[in-house]
Amino acid sequence: MADIPKQILAEKENIEAALNNLKEAIERKEKSVVELAAIGTFLHNIYSGIENILKQVLKTKNIEISKTETWHKDLLNRSVSSGIISEGLSDELYEYLTFRHFFVHGYGFMIEEAPLFDLAGRIPEIWLQFMSSVERHYKVL
User: Does 140 fall in a domain?
Assistant: First the structure.
């Protein structure tokens, strides 16, 4: 169990690097399909890191998530029922889960700019809310 906070800290560092890269991509004047795909990649990276943190926190509570077809949604639901995150935060994260699904199974050139920028604009605040929730479980963060 001592390694779990270390793993969470590593995820936190990676997510913060992805947030910095996301900011840089958003600030570029040209927004071709390449920049949009990069923004999508960073959002995907950030959400995947959030899922990894949730899995680690649940692991410390001896709660396993079975790799079923719905495990991503189950992870959010279990995190709410375990008191790790609020239902409101789960609802916001669910939007990133649905984007992640589209991003993994779709094509980069199909990304729509307006919804992408909405998600990108909100993720820094959601990240702060998320880390505040996780820090209740780990004072070392």
Answer: no
- Structural domain harbouring 109: 3-135
- Residue 9 C-alpha from the chain's centroid: 14
Collapsing DSSP to helix, strand or coil, 54 comes out as helix
- CATH code of residue 130: 1.20.120.580
Q: pTM surpassing 0.85?
A: yes
Query: For each of the chain's 141 residues, which pLDDT tens digit applies?
Result: 456 788 899 999 999 999 999 999 999 998 899 999 999 999 999 999 999 999 999 998 899 888 899 999 999 999 999 999 999 999 999 999 999 999 999 888 889 999 999 999 999 999 999 999 998 876 644
Total count of domains within the chain: 1
CA distance linking residue 47 with residue 70, whole number of Å: 16
Asked whether residue 74 is assigned to any structural domain, the reply reads: yes
Q: Is the C-alpha dihedral spanning 9, 7, 41, 100 positive or negative?
A: negative
